[in-house]
Amino acid sequence: MEEKVSQMAKDVYKREGKRPDWDEYFMSVAHAVRQRADCTRRQVGSILVKDKRIISTGYNGTPAGIKNCSEGGCERCNGSEEQFPRGMHLDKCVCSHAEENVIVQAARHGVSAAEATLYTTNSPCTTCSKMIINAGIKRIIMEGEYPDELGAKLLGDANIEVIKIRGE
Description:
alpha/beta, 5 strands, about 15% strand
């Protein structure tokens, strides 16, 4: 473990070229958070930022206290692609999305998400988009694409600034 931490520290301090801007920096943190995701289908990390300070983090996986996907906790995630095609049978999935978890964690700790920026390694689905709107989040920096046109439309209708940066 000590060796792993030492290597991670060396990697963090290896900077090639310019210092990252704030969006690049916070997106790299979202990528680090994503490493905690236990979903066997898709790993997503999200952070909420206000005034250049991280106020909450979240990643996708089963709810607290529920067996993780990798341990058989989610029927859909552990089923085959033929049985549960991507984007289908979401009612069979017990996982919480990263965007959902980042908002819930902020609320759980009494931190308002209003006026915050969400950094997420994938675009939000419709349900997460509704939560983002209702939480008062004003800006989203994202990578990746989730096949959900309604979610994107809702964010646009709510005048939430959405910026897609480098792909995965």
